[in-house]
Design goal:
The protein has two helices and two strands. It is of the alpha+beta class and 69 residues long. The chain has one domain. The protein has a two-stranded antiparallel sheet. The longest helix has 17 residues. It is elongated, with a radius of gyration of 27 Å. The protein starts with a helix and ends in a 17-residue tail after the last strand.
């Protein structure tokens, strides 16, 4: 039983080593880019005071943009 297990592992390792690496350009997969910081933003709050995004750093911020076209 252990010989067959060793043989199976050897076949898997050799098969994986013989497989070429994928060509990412052909697959059109872009490399991961970390998120960029949000641009500077200031909007009036419900009390009419201006809030800046920088002042809210470290807090969860949900921006809800609504428009009628």
């Amino acid at each position: 039983m252990s010989r067959s297990l060793v043989a199976l592992v050897a076949v898997l390792v050799l098969t994986a080593a013989a497989t070429p690496a994928p060509d990412w350009e052909t697959l059109q997969i872009l490399p991961y880019e970390p998120p960029k910081p949000a641009p500077a933003l200031s909007l009036p709050d419900l009390d009419g005071k201006t809030q800046t995004l920088e002042a809210l750093r470290g807090n969860v911020v949900i921006l809800y943009f609504w428009a009628t076209w």
